[in-house]
């Protein structure tokens, strides 16, 4: 008997398989297709000949843990203890899974704000807990009235994602003030803040829970070197939490993977001495601008993108198809793969929106746009 009977093949796999079958340009899956920084590959090549191939300590490579404390201090002016407040994980997904498994108990409620990434619900269900899905407003700001209606004494955790996947929305100061007011009424609720796109923001930097003194002692903050350094296949993420929460997370982590890839951790530790996170943001800012310029020649209407490397676009002005059928037609007829936004909602809410990934080389973006420009109204 399945523990997850309603979960099948993910929409990301479905669209990528269709893209391969029809030789479509894949702007569906969220990973870059351009080269990794040569400084990182050089560091990795050198380290591969050294003694870095055995288990690291369970919580992570000591050098990398120390670098994360410095990065957190430089980015958010927060001082954390590398021995007690951090764990290096096999990607952000493992960090999220371990956190929920460690901290959520049977029959407790966990609030998820839709549209949401699909890795949140499964560990809640495997904890025999209750995922409570609450839709954001149509402009993807938090619907505080709806959240207040759902949060109660049985709520164990609230999950937020900022910058947001799939929409690219970032939270405002007003949003955090409202969140702090609500959570002040429920001191036992843990905040899980998914911030994997924290270094890919544009007009203004995102507000991290690391900077919120009213929240951080009850929060688990998830980060991803895979996203920040465009090395998604390395699967290196980390979580920051106060010691009383991190102690429990580490208990689960040690029995999931014990420790993660030693060579990758050692390489990232050295690379953090030379990488410029502002340059990474600038790289994606340029790609967003290029994609926006190219898409201006298509019938799509682009929504604001404040962070992440995803661009949401509306096709409501030229098609009445549901978004799943529409994305399949984009592949079969026009040769471009994307993701329908309805699949990020529990109720499959269809607003005639699709998500493009612009973390691609310029030639790929130009070729995709040229195909999309052939769409007839």
TrEMBL record:
InterPro entries on file: Aminotransferase_I/II_large, Kynurenine-oxoglutarate_AT, PyrdxlP-dep_Trfase, PyrdxlP-dep_Trfase_major, PyrdxlP-dep_Trfase_small
Entries under Gene3D superfamilies matching the protein: Aspartate Aminotransferase, domain 1, Type I PLP-dependent aspartate aminotransferase-like (Major domain)
Protein origin, superkingdom: Bacteria
Keywords: Aminotransferase, Pyridoxal phosphate, Transferase
Cofactor(s) needed for function: pyridoxal 5'-phosphate
UniProt source species: Flavobacterium cerinum
Source organism phylogeny: Bacteria, Pseudomonadati, Bacteroidota, Flavobacteriia, Flavobacteriales
Domain Aminotransferase class I/classII large: 24-372
Annotated Pfam families: Aminotran_1_2
UniProt name for this protein: Methionine aminotransferase
Keyword Transferase in annotation: yes
Molecular function GO labels: transaminase activity
């Amino acid at each position: 008997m399945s523990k997850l009977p309603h979960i099948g093949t993910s929409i990301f796999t479905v669209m990528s398989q269709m893209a391969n079958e029809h030789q479509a340009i894949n702007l569906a899956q969220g990973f870059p297709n351009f080269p990794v920084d040569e400084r990182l590959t050089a560091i990795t090549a050198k380290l591969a000949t050294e003694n870095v191939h055995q288990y690291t300590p369970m919580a992570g490579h000591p050098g990398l843990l120390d670098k994360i404390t410095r990065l957190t201090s430089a980015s958010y002016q927060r001082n954390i203890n590398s021995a007690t407040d951090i764990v290096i994980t096999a990607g952000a997904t493992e960090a999220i899974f371990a956190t929920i498994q460690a901290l959520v108990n049977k029959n407790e409620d966990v609030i998820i704000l839709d549209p949401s990434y699909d890795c949140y619900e499964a560990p809640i269900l495997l904890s025999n807990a209750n995922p409570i899905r609450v839709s954001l407003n149509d402009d993807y700001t938090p619907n505080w009235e709806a959240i207040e209606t759902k949060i109660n004494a049985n709520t164990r955790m609230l999950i937020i994602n900022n910058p947001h996947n799939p929409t690219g929305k970032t939270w405002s100061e007003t949003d955090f003030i409202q969140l702090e007011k609500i959570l002040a009424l429920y001191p036992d609720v843990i905040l899980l803040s998914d911030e994997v796109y924290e270094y890919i923001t544009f007009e203004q930097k995102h507000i991290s829970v690391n900077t919120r003194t009213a929240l951080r002692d009850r929060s688990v903050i998830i980060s991803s070197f895979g996203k920040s350094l465009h090395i998604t296949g390395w699967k290196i993420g980390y979580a920051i939490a106060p010691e009383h929460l991190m102690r429990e997370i580490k208990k689960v982590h040690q029995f999931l993977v014990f420790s993660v890839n030693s060579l990758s951790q050692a390489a990232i530790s050295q690379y953090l001495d030379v990488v410029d996170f502002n340059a990474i943001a600038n790289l994606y800012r340029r790609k967003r601008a290029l994609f926006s310029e190219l898409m201006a020649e298509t019938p799509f209407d682009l929504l604001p993108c404040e962070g992440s490397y995803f661009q949401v676009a509306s096709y409501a002005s030229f098609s009445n198809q549901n978004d799943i059928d529409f994305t399949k037609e984009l592949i079969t007829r026009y040769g471009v793969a994307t993701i329908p936004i309805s699949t990020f909602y529990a109720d499959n809410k269809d607003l005639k929106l699709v998500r493009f990934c612009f973390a691609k080389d310029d030639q790929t973006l130009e070729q995709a746009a040229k195909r999309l420009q052939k769409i007839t109204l």
